[in-house]
Design brief:
mainly alpha; ion transport; V-type ATP synthase subunit C
C-alpha cells in the first residue's frame, strides 16, 4: 500500500483533531470517579461529548461501553481517506470473533451477538458465516491459515488454549504487516511496543506460575523489539536485574516498580497498569504530529484507553469503590 500524501488527510486531521479537546484528563476522571451513582456520572460524561447514556440507568455498563466503541469506529472510518490504513487497529476484534466462533463450534453452540464484537475489519455476521462454512475466499491468508491450524491442532489435542495461542500469533503478525505497509514509523513502533508488552506480561506470569521455559517459547510473539533470547537470558534473574536491561525498550519502570510489588504481594495489577502506561507514553508521540495518519491513530488509541478507563470508573461507582480505590486502577490518559 503506497503511503498517502499529507494533504490527503487535511480534512480528517482537522475534524478528528477537534475531538481531542474532549478527551478526559486524570483530574476529569477523578471527578467522574467521585460521582455518587451512575446517573450522576452520566451528567459528567455529557460534558465530554458522550451524550445521553440511558444504559447507565439500568446499570448496563457494558452496553454503554460497546456503544462508545462503535461510535469511535464510525468516527474514524467515516473520516479517513482509506479504511485499510488503520485496519491494524481492528484485527484484535476480528481475532476475538474467530475465537468465539471456533470455541462455540467445538462446544456445539451458536455464537451470539453478546459475545461477538461489531467493530472488526470483517463484519461479525460475515465472520460467523466464513468460519462456520470454512469459506476463506475473502479472508486474509494469515487469518485463514491460523484458523486451519487452530482447528487441526484442537482436533488432535482438545486443548482450547491452543486456539488462543495460534490466533494471537496470527493477529499480531497481521497487525505488524499492516503497519509496515503504511510506511509510518509511528504505527510500526506502536505495534512492536504492544507485542513487547504482551510478551513481557506473559513472561512474568509464567515465571510466577513456575512454568518451564519451553512453555514461554511456545507462546512468544515474534515481531517486537525484545528478542526471544533476551527473555531466555532473563528467565532466572530477579525483576530488578531485568528492569535494568529493559531501559532501552521503555519498560524499565514497569518492571522495577511492578516487579517489586509482585514479589512482595503476588499482585499483578500495578505491573500491568505500568505496562499500559508505557504504551500510552509511546502513543503520546502522536501529539507532536499535526498532519497525516499519525495524529488520527494517536487519537484512536487515546480514546480506546479512555473508554477502558470509563469501564473501570463506572464499575467502581456501581460496586461502591472509593475514588482512591478507583484511581489505583486507572491507566495514564493521553492528555
Amino acid at each position: 500500500m503506497a503511503k498517502r500524501k499529507i494533504e490527503e488527510y487535511t480534512f480528517a486531521d482537522a475534524y478528528i483533531g477537534s475531538f481531542t479537546r474532549n478527551l478526559m484528563s486524570r483530574k476529569d476522571m477523578m471527578r467522574l470517579a467521585s460521582c455518587k451513582d451512575l446517573k450522576a456520572a452520566e451528567a459528567v460524561l455529557q460534558e465530554f461529548g458522550y451524550g445521553e447514556a440511558k444504559e447507565l440507568y439500568d446499570d448496563d455498563i457494558e452496553w454503554f461501553i460497546r456503544r462508545e466503541q462503535n461510535k469511535l469506529f464510525d468516527l474514524i472510518y467515516d473520516t479517513v481517506p482509506e479504511r485499510k490504513e488503520l485496519s491494524m487497529c481492528l484485527f484484535p476484534y476480528d481475532y476475538h470473533n474467530i475465537k468465539v466462533c471456533l470455541k462455540s463450534e467445538f462446544l456445539g453452540i451458536t455464537p451470539t451477538e453478546d459475545h461477538l464484537m461489531s467493530n472488526g475489519d470483517i463484519d461479525w455476521k460475515h465472520m460467523v458465516a466464513m468460519v462456520r462454512d470454512r469459506n476463506f475466499t475473502f479472508m486474509p491468508t494469515v487469518m485463514k491459515e491460523a484458523i486451519i491450524e487452530a482447528t487441526d491442532l484442537f482436533g488432535r489435542s482438545g486443548d482450547p488454549q491452543e486456539i488462543d495461542i495460534i490466533l494471537d500469533k496470527a493477529c499480531y503478525k497481521q497487525m505488524l504487516q499492516a503497519a509496515e505497509e503504511t510506511g509510518e514509523d509511528f504505527l510500526i513502533g506502536i505495534v512492536k511496543r504492544q507485542i513487547d508488552i504482551l510478551n513481557l506480561k506473559t513472561f512474568v506470569r509464567l515465571r510466577q506460575m513456575k512454568k518451564p521455559w519451553n512453555f514461554f517459547q511456545k507462546v512468544y510473539l515474534a515481531g517486537g523489539n525484545i528478542s526471544e533470547s533476551f527473555f531466555f537470558s532473563a528467565w532466572e534473574e530477579n525483576y530488578s536485574q531485568i528492569a535494568d536491561k529493559l531501559t532501552p525498550y521503555g519498560l524499565s519502570d514497569a518492571m522495577a516498580k511492578g516487579g517489586a510489588k509482585l514479589s512482595e504481594t503476588g499482585d499483578f495489577a500495578l505491573f500491568e497498569k505500568l505496562c499500559e502506561d508505557a504504551l500510552m507514553e509511546f502513543n503520546k508521540k502522536a501529539k507532536y504530529e499535526s498532519f497525516g495518519i499519525v495524529p488520527i491513530a494517536g487519537y484512536w488509541y487515546a480514546k480506546e484507553l479512555e473508554i477502558d478507563n470509563l469501564r473501570i470508573i463506572l464499575t467502581g461507582i456501581l460496586i461502591g469503590s472509593t475514588p482512591e480505590q478507583i484511581a489505583e486502577k486507572l491507566r495514564e490518559p493521553y492528555v
